[in-house]
Structure prediction request, 74 residues.
Amino acid sequence: MLAFSPERRQNPDGDELMATLRSWLDFQGRAARQLKVHRNTVAARLRRIEQILDCDLTDLATQAVLHPALRLDR
Prediction:
């Protein structure tokens, strides 16, 4: 996902999407406050991440795989 390049300049790039996913996995409902963006922005980014990774982020098994993987990537 780091190599992801958005179609439009104003869309989040791979780094922003990774930061959003990390914050959401760490803070869940407080991710928007931690990122200082609107909650709808977080929701839209999460939908985009699901499209890129072809996964369902509400699935606990997916979260269990992604969370430690992102921690190792830091």
Observations:
- DSSP finds four helices and no strands in the chain.
- Residues 4 and 17 are 9 Å apart (CA to CA).
